[in-house]
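3.2 Worked example (two chains)
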Amino acid sequence: MEETPAGTDGNRMSLCMFMGTTGYHSASWRLPGSNLRGGTDPAHFAAQARLAEEGGFDAVFLADSMALWSDVRERPAGVIDPSVLACAAIAATEHIGVVLTFSTSFNEPYNVARRLTSLDHLSGGRIGWNIVTSATQEAAQNFGLDTIPDHGERYRRGEEFVEVCLKLWDSWDDDAVIGDRAGWWADPARIRAIDHVGEFFSVRGPLDVPPSPQRVPLLVQAGSSPAGMALAAARADVVFTVQATIDAAAGFRAEIQDLARRSGRSTPVRLLPGLIPVVRDTDEEAEDYLAQLDSMLDLTDGLRQLERSLGWDPGSLALDDPFAPDLPVPESVAGNQTYYRVIKDMADERRHSVRDVVRRMSTSRGHRLVVGSPETVAEAMSDWVDRGAADGYIVMPAVLPDDLQVFVDEVVPLLRKSGHLPAGHDDRVLADRFRSTDLAR
């Protein structure tokens, strides 16, 4: 089997696939044949993982929420715990990685470190952790809090949480297990307590699971606030980010890399913006297909979601009003700053209607939307990588599984032909596919 050369040099493109129920587009569930109960069907996710592996993706990505995360009138909501879905994806595949989300706000480091190590053993070194701090009032109230902690506190806790996990993963030496049938199974002197005492956690250790193939899983971070960027620069291998233009993506990537250098790191942080590819045989057919999807949106539900995102009362906005409120700077917002920034940018432009904002958030949540023929989409994807604005993408199909199938069948061969994707599978452990000693691409 052909393998990818070591490293991520040149213009090789890393691809992760965002697994979901019926697709990223808010109206995807309205299409005939959509799996309306896909969120509780492990086979639905396993099939996506197999298809993504066929398409040469490095990993699949499992989001999570600690509360019912959307208006149930607007789209399907409620998904099986990502640990369980990860098991389904691992069992269905041989090569592809699985990145799953755990919140640092509503978990404990020992449980998360233990679970990730266990899954890494199960997968043979194919596990990644998407580190999130959770930003909704509903999640806080599910865990006994009256309100969500402020942004700074959540990120201080998140940083300490990751620090504890790293200590736990290092609590066994590589040669701790001796396996001498006539003597010791393991040397207790090579397994140690971590005795961590900090602002948020007191953890004795050691971890009760021997080191897994990766020891430390691939670390992914998805925040774009200053605190999120600082955490990513210090700890993450990959940043999943919302970037709609090449200039913004290139600037963000350069800033993250600079922060990584200044933190003393010798390895880069790979930038993977979210990408929604809408692909049909021609550009015109792709535009028509997206227009068909958009025509099925219930903009009234989307309007209520926008009001909730801003913390405003229902009825505060009307679809045909101009959208130009003087919104606070993101750093003063307690909730999800990444998506708030998208909304604020549109408000600051003062050229959009409320309808425009609702449609964009329902279609892409601010992520980059590329619509066109396979050639158009492949060229658009390659352009950002070639020009240093991205190291790859989190691909978020508008409709599942149909749009993923089209992408694998029509776009992936073009990316392989251009040299952006390898022809075979990369069988190194997942983290080694992203970590490199070269910060300068």
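3.2.1 Second chain
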Amino acid sequence: MIIIRAALAVAFILGLLAGPLAGEAQQTGRVPKIGFLATAAPIGSNLEAFRQGLRGFGYVEGQTIAIEQRNAGGKIEQLDGLAGEFVRLRPDVIVTAGTQATQAVKRATVSIPIVMALSGDAVGTGLVASLARPGGNVTGLSIVSPELSGKRLELLKEVVPRLSTVAVLWNPADPPRLRDIGELRAAAQRLRITVTAAEVRTTADFEGAFAAVTAARPQALLVLADPLMSASRHRIVAFAARSRLPAMYGQATYVEDGGLIAFGASFSESYRRAAYYVDRILKGAKPGDLPVEQPTKYELVINMKTAKALGLTIPPSVLLRVDQLIE
């Protein structure tokens, strides 16, 4: 009985000593800091989708979590500097938007967890060892769907009667696009469509690429999704409208800005899902142990106003599959 009472007394004293310390830690506890690095604009709606995801896990920005964001605006050469800047800020997690942004951060740190909100072929580009066991400090979401390029060409052929020639605007400096262009050429051969490729590696290449497309006199334009293209989407959409070219894109934002049609993964859904990885990591999980996921939601978006301006009638078979119609 004496021993028990002595033990209780010691526990009580330790509790008194620990109590103020615990309370102080709760009051002055460090707010987790999240870095958010995007390869290209725009990130507004995507960043908001990420914030929505965080709120779903109970985080309140400015109170229980802080977000520092940087955007290279499509200038790939700035990514290494921005990644280094983030590493010096020592965030708890760095969220990346785009394969090249992820590569830049991975070059800058092997210890800070990296969550890919959106990336191309993460295995093929060496970002992770495998989707099931990524290893290292990178995890998140990876789009490994080169077959989507063929699907986009098939949709374009349904929308444009007697389609036989297509110009493709793409960036060979973005590694995942190499698989995309290969799949696209295979689909074009199967569909008996002649493809003319116009390369764009930097923003300075656009005018030359536009001239090459004009000279080829295609019946339609297909743009392979890429951060550089996304950053210059207004120029691309304006060129397609000026040239009266029905154009297929990989992101809904192009169609929202006046493009004709887009088919691809739902970016907002991917950014919301990235919050799940951040939550797991902040609670102690290692990024290398969290399997990389692939998008589960794909969307077909059509701008009917643009279709009308081009004199196109969207077939009922396509309209039945549309997720969003922009009037």
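3.3 Remarks
The longest helix spans residues 2-28.
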